TrEMBL record:
<dbReference type="InterPro" id="IPR012946">
    <property type="entry name" value="X8"/>
</dbReference>
<protein>
    <submittedName>
        <fullName>Glucan endo-1,3-beta-D-glucosidase-like</fullName>
    </submittedName>
</protein>
<dbReference type="InterPro" id="IPR044788">
    <property type="entry name" value="X8_dom_prot"/>
</dbReference>
<keyword id="KW-0732">Signal</keyword>
<feature type="domain" description="X8">
    <location>
        <begin position="28"/>
        <end position="111"/>
    </location>
</feature>
<dbReference type="GO" id="GO:0009506">
    <property type="term" value="C:plasmodesma"/>
</dbReference>
<feature type="signal peptide">
    <location>
        <begin position="1"/>
        <end position="24"/>
    </location>
</feature>
<dbReference type="Pfam" id="PF07983">
    <property type="entry name" value="X8"/>
</dbReference>
Length: 112
């Protein structure tokens, strides 16, 4: 005799899938979690910039200011996240990345 699936498990699965589909159609960005350790942020910055063009973080470029590690890591992580197709797993960064629905752009620094 086949075992019946509990209706609430199906509903949770359906909501989970639906939520993923909804997020995929929304504009999203990847930023560093504020609680991230400095060493983790530096590793994220170095890794992301080894994979994508991070020139916007150079002195006198649009995203250099504020000149701090969490800002630079967030910009680099977002560049990487967008270059890889905005998949939630491309913002994981060892659980130090956060997918957000609010555009983190500021001044002339456009997160894209």
């Amino acid at each position: 005799m086949a075992k019946a699936t509990h209706p609430s498990l199906f509903l949770i699965y359906f909501i989970s899938v639906l939520g993923s589909l909804t997020l995929a159609n929304e504009k999203t960005w990847c930023v560093a979690k504020p609680s991230s350790e400095q060493g983790t942020l530096l590793a994220n910055l170095n890794y992301a910039c080894s994979q994508v063009d991070c020139r916007v973080l150079q002195k006198s470029c649009s995203c250099f200011v504020p000149d701090n590690l969490i800002n630079h890591a967030s910009v680099a992580m977002n560049l990487y996240y967008h270059s890889k197709g905005r998949n939630h797993w491309n913002c994981y960064f060892g659980n130090s990345g956060l997918v957000v629905l609010t555009d983190p752009s500021y001044g002339s620094c456009i997160y894209g």
